Amino acid sequence: MTELDAAWADRWLRECARVLAARREELIDLDRAIGDGDHGENMDRGFQAVVEKLDEGPSGSVAAALKLAATMLMSKVGGAAGPLYGTAFLRASVAVGERDALDGPTVEAMLAAARDGVVARGKAEPGDKTMVDAWAPAVDAAGRAGDGEAALAAAASAAEAGALATKPLVARKGRASYLGERSAGHLDPGAVSTSYILRAAVTAAVSEISAGAE
Ligand code: ADP
Ligand code: MG
What we know:
Blueprint: H1 6-22, H2 24-34, H3 39-54, H4 62-76, H5 81-96, H6 104-122, H7 132-144, H8 148-164, H9 189-213
Helix pairs in contact: 1-3, 1-4, 1-9, 2-3, 2-9, 3-4, 4-5, 5-6, 6-7, 6-8, 7-8, 7-9, 8-9
This protein binds adenosine-5'-diphosphate and magnesium ion.
Magnesium ion binds next to loops.
């Protein structure tokens, strides 16, 4: 089994940057439909800044990696998503604490802290068509899974399903809520970016295997 350790956390953040760069235009289009069209650019810029920091040296611990992400996202992403993701990663960092590596319960605790941070900051509930609709089912699924990798995989799948399920919803929080009923019929960009971030955590766990086989 792959250790969910500091090296994994750094791979996770680099994979986030890779995926969000690749999905930049898609997230821009999603946000253009029910917002102002900046979400793809915001997320790409934020995670490129995270990678620039990582290039200065490995973060050294899971908590330090999550804190580095929080700091960079808070200062570089802007909009609604910057403070929301910043708070999520900061709370996640605190939840991980001194641990060298994560197991199933700590993955769940990390994701629950992130979700709670998003909720504390944005006051959205499940069903409001926000990133909470990806975070909340992810936490629930992680709690039902086994070891750390299984918890991450369950969380990512649940976040993807949660993001897809935002399509028919009417937005009750954030910029999309200004559209009222017209926000229905579109995916929520923040829920989609959350699903990419959580899928990246799984890819980072699996990628060590392929790296070792080279
Ligand atoms: P902005 O809306 O300021 O342009 P972004 O486009 O970067 O910011 O991010 C929009 C995303 O932020 C939405 O798709 C939604 O998922 C999330 N969001 C907005 N407001 C809230 C909130 N109050 N609670 C949770 N998530 C929110
Ligand atoms: Mg926007």
